Amino acid sequence: MSKAAGASIQFEKVSKRFSDGTVALSDLSLQVPAGTFCVLLGPSGSGKSTLLRCLNGLETPSQGSVYVDGTLVNRNSIKQLRKEIGSIHQQFGLVQRDQVANNVLAGALSKLPTWQAMLGCYPRALEARAAEMLEQVGLDPVHLHRRAGELSGGQQQRVGIARAFMLAPKLILADEPIASLDPKTSYDILALIREQAQALGATVLCSLHQVDLARVFADRIIGLKAGRVVFDGAPSDLTADMVGLLYGHDESAVAPEYV
Fold first, then answer.
1. Cα–Cα distance between 210 and 191 in angstroms, integer?
2. SS3 for 147?
3. For the residues of 84-118, what is the DSSP string, one character each?
4. What is the CA 177 to chain-centroid distance, rounded?
5. What pLDDT digit, counting tens, does each position of 20-60 carry?
6. Gap between the Cα atoms of 43 and 62, Å rounded
7. DSSP 200-239
């Protein structure tokens, strides 16, 4: 597919309070230009996942506004916006008992009529696209008819990436996509996400826990703590003191060796 401009992102004074009183985001404002590979850093509970879920309509802000490419994210716009958004999940998000082909094709469901999606009837052009995407993420077409659960963790995440890029999205939301992977596979998966995004000109918003990998792959890093932005800048500007502010003494945030 041809290269297209990515989507810009804007949060205006966004807060999110859950029914149990937990405040996940607090008066958060930020802008991410189109085509940026932006990493969200912060400990568990800092608001990273909630921020991502506000972009694809899975969470609604308690106050404030979220925009994708200048369009307000709300119940009226989200169906159309989701056609331009690909998602990559922490635990792969695959149907383990289903074939790899069907898992990849699921990334095209938003473009199909409801009856066709329910029956799983995919046009041949989409089936060819699924095989092409699987090859692009480094998996042999022989895997198309294997059950997803038979693959290794790294292979399953490659299937998840293929699914996310099926419709050449303008925006990729990756929520801790390497959390369950070993260091070498983690590096390879992030390199693959960046490579695929650059080929399309897509914007990536990726939550991570590993500071070293954020420094390697991000154009921009946003550090979150208790639902607030405490750092926003280039990887080279992320100091040891700021990492300490974000993570305290959590040594798992700094990975050993990824290359």
1. 14
2. strand
3. GEEEE-TTTT--TTSBHHHHHHGGGGGGS-HHHHH
4. 7
5. 999 999 999 999 999 999 999 999 899 999 999 999 999 99
6. 22
7. HT-EEEEEES-HHHHHHH-SEEEEEETTEEEEEE-GGG--
All domains of the chain, ordered by start, with CATH?
Answer: 1-84+169-259 (3.40.50.300), 99-166 (no CATH)
Nearest to 167 by CA among 208, 206, 207, 122: 122
pTM, to two decimals = 0.89
- Token pair of 41, please? 């850093």
Q: What is the distance between the alpha carbons of residues 88 and 157, in angstroms, rounded to a whole number? A: 8
Structure-token pair, residue 210: 């590993």
With beta carbons less than 8 A apart as the criterion, state whether 214 and 257 touch.
no
SS3 251: helix
Q: In this structure, what token pair is assigned to residue 223?
A: 């550090």
